[in-house]
Amino acid sequence: MNKLLRIARLDLTLLWRNRTALFTVIGMPLLLGALLLPARGNDFDGIDSGVFQGTGYFGFFLIIVVFIHLTSVFTARREDLTLKRLRGTALSDAEILGGSLLTVAAMYAVQAVLLVALLGTVLDGRFPDDPLLLLAALAAGAVVFALLAFAVSGLTPTAELAQLTVMPVLFGCMAGAGVLVPLDDAPEALREACRLLPLTPVVEIVRTAYFGQDFTTYGAHADVGFAEAWTACLRPFAVLLAWAVAGRAMAARWFRWEPRHA
User: Can you give the residue ranges of the ABC-2 type transporter transmembrane domain (predicted)?
Assistant: First the structure.
């Protein structure tokens, strides 16, 4: 555990020195949080619009803090031989990667707590109906997008190109997960395809946990109790499990410890 904390501390130090990464991880979520304020007080299907959009940000922050940041970090460290040098020390592969994961997990947890506080105090005064289900959704999403970051970093030639290689995942998930605009009115075939994206199940589970309504179905969102909410979310959790298995396989195949030209 001590070695993991040392790697995590190194990650935080490097993050503080990289102003671009610092803005991506800290500044961007703060900016997006501020953009929720104009939507405060507007009604969307009986729910405050600011709170509804804000619950989608739990998923959006996953892409920013976990996926984009880790992809950039591992690509840069591979190309400047940092990963190779760390691998030559007493650290195991799991400790090298786990330290970075611990850092982004901690940053994401802080952002999630701040977002809950923002939604519960400044916007609508509403807090999650089922905090445990919300936590399970965020943890499962973090695992999936971390694995995808490992895989995509292996396909990224340079750290500069990392901002481009993450774009298909970013735009695909943002457009298809219903983060800002619900998919209720979209054609059925499109809705079903979007439900297979890695971010969509996270958003569905988060909103079900937050509002105590079944957001795993389209149209009317029926009220659900504790057990009903978990039962309704079995399908989204299954989709996340499938993505975790696929992400693990892709990471094992594509992740690289040394520069691609080596």
Answer: 56-244
